[in-house]
């Protein structure tokens, strides 16, 4: 699992940079400032949690292997958080369909749970 989290985190970080450039150079002329800000928030949180996913992968390979179950859960929940939080913000900002808005907090809760699991793994490890 640890290598998979590092690969997924790296791919999501790559995608975050690409999406950030897309927003700055293409979307800027097509959507309003408010929607661009929403899009940029998605990019920022995706990058932060892509790095978090890489960290989870590295921790899984180190002394915290005894807590691999907690770290695996943290990694998968963090990935779900990226998809729900950032994905819903991308959809909301580019389509202006407000139905995507209520999905964002679910992704935020997933982020909180994933980081809490990392804390617990450290405490137990």
From TrEMBL:
InterPro entries: DUF423 (IPR006696). It is a multi-pass membrane protein. Keywords: Membrane, Transmembrane, Transmembrane helix. Coiled coil: none annotated. It comes from the Bacteria. Pfam families: DUF423. The chain crosses the membrane at residues 47-64, 71-91, 103-123. The keyword Hydrolase does not apply. Its main location: membrane. It is found in: Membrane. Belongs to the UPF0382 family. PANTHER family: TRANSMEMBRANE PROTEIN 256 (PTHR43461). This is Uncharacterized membrane protein YgdD (TMEM256/DUF423 family). It comes from Scopulibacillus daqui.
């Amino acid at each position: 699992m640890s290598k998979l989290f590092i690969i997924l985190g790296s791919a999501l970080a790559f995608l975050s940079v690409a999406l950030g450039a897309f927003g700055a150079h293409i979307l800027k002329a097509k959507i309003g400032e408010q929607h661009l800000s929403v899009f940029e928030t998605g990019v920022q949180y995706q990058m932060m949690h892509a790095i978090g996913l890489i960290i989870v992968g590295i921790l899984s390979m180190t002394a915290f292997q005894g807590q691999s179950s907690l770290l695996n859960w943290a990694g998968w929940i963090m990935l779900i958080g990226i998809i729900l939080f950032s994905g819903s913000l991308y959809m909301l900002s580019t389509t202006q369909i407000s139905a995507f808005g209520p999905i964002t907090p679910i992704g935020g809760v997933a982020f909180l749970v994933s980081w809490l699991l990392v804390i617990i793994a450290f405490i137990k490890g």
